[in-house]
Amino acid sequence: xxxxxxxxxxxxxxxxxxxxxxxxxxxxxxxxxxxxxxxxxxxxxxxxxxxxxxxxxxxxxxxxxxxxxxxxxxxxxxxxxxxxxxxxxxxxxxxxxxxxxxxxxxx
Length: 107
What we know:
The chain is mainly α and 107 residues long. It is built from five helices and no strands. The chain is 79% helix and 0% strand.
């Protein structure tokens, strides 16, 4: 799941000097939070004995992943490509906006 979203994150941004990385990061965090939340639930469920819950969460993650991809694609259309020299700015903005989500996605 995170294999697909992380590249999308780094393709979102503009080469314009007035680009608002913080706004982009907040919007991207909104896209990623549901995926992060379900991933956390799956992690907890995998340690328990409720196999039905675990199966339900695995099905849910597929839906949430599709929704997150759609959300990220809309942001890509809004912000465009990120220049390689601006990836660090985007990463810093994302870590500032949603550190817990980004740590989980990069883990």
